[in-house]
Design goal:
It contains nine helices and no strands. It has helices spanning 2-26, 56-60, 75-94, 98-120, 125-144, 150-170, 175-188, 190-213, 226-249.
Length: 251
């Protein structure tokens, strides 16, 4: 039974990863994520269902469009595989519980928001408001399951508010970053949100310094912070409680 659930989780991740590719490509262009059906962006031919099987179709097509031979980015199967792996890790960590459903939704949102910000340096309100609504929905559901409410409301307010203060003082970040942190805080709760913020600045600082040192970016270039928030939130899902417990044990 457990094996069947694991297989289902992986397949779900692959399928949704394929859908996330559509979202990542279309949302910044202001296009519908539902219509028109999937098509080659080079020759506009409609992609048949048998060419939309996650990962497998990419391999069978040797990474090229069936009709025009245009190369298909390796990132498409990569997003599908990463999504499936993350879904599976969530299941391994939280089992068949309310939290698995909740965090699979969070992973889904972070994949789309993080990748779009990486590509465009923009955070789209249509994506963050979806996450905020979902986060509030899970808080309400958790209330009826006696899982607490205040912890998660404070998580959203604290995480989003902290970034908002930085924006007002330094102008060094965008309001989209505050929206992402507010959304993540609603899912993670106060304690884990603090871990997420800490990791975000550590990872962002390390990567930023590396990019400047390698002359890929200079000091005046804008580096999107959303991907660092996404990575840190994912790390917090899997290691956040261990970090909190270790910190508490020190005192």
């Amino acid at each position: 039974m457990n094996i069947l659930i694991e297989v289902y989780i992986i397949i779900l991740g692959l399928l949704l990863g394929s859908f996330f590719n559509v979202c990542i490509f279309r949302i910044p262009r202001g296009e519908s994520i539902a219509f028109p059906p999937s098509h080659c962006t080079s020759c506009n031919n409609k992609i048949k269902g048998y060419d939309l099987i996650p990962v497998i179709s990419y391999i069978l097509l040797k990474g090229k469009c069936r009709y025009c031979g245009e190369k298909i980015s390796l990132r498409y199967p990569a997003v599908e595989i990463v999504t499936a792996v993350l879904f599976y890790l969530v299941y391994l960590n939280y089992g068949l519980t309310f939290f698995t459903i909740k965090f699979i939704v969070l992973v889904s949102l972070l994949m789309v928001i993080g990748m779009i910000d990486f590509d465009t340096t923009d955070v789209y309100f249509s994506t963050t408001i979806t996450g905020i609504v979902c986060g509030i929905g899970f808080i309400i559901a958790g209330y009826f399951m006696n899982l607490g409410v205040i912890e998660f409301i404070l998580g959203g307010v604290a995480a989003g508010g902290f970034i908002a203060v930085i924006i007002l003082i330094t102008r060094g970040m965008g309001w989209g970053d505050a929206e992402i942190c507010f959304m993540c805080g609603l899912f993670l709760g106060l304690k884990l949100s603090i871990v997420m913020l800490f990791l975000s600045f550590i990872i962002g600082g390390i990567i930023g310094i590396a990019l400047i040192a390698l002359k890929i970016k200079n000091r005046k270039d804008y580096i999107p912070f959303g991907p660092f928030i996404a990575i840190s939130s994912l790390l917090t899902l899997f290691f956040g409680q261990h970090i909190v417990n270790y910190y508490i044990s020190m005192f």
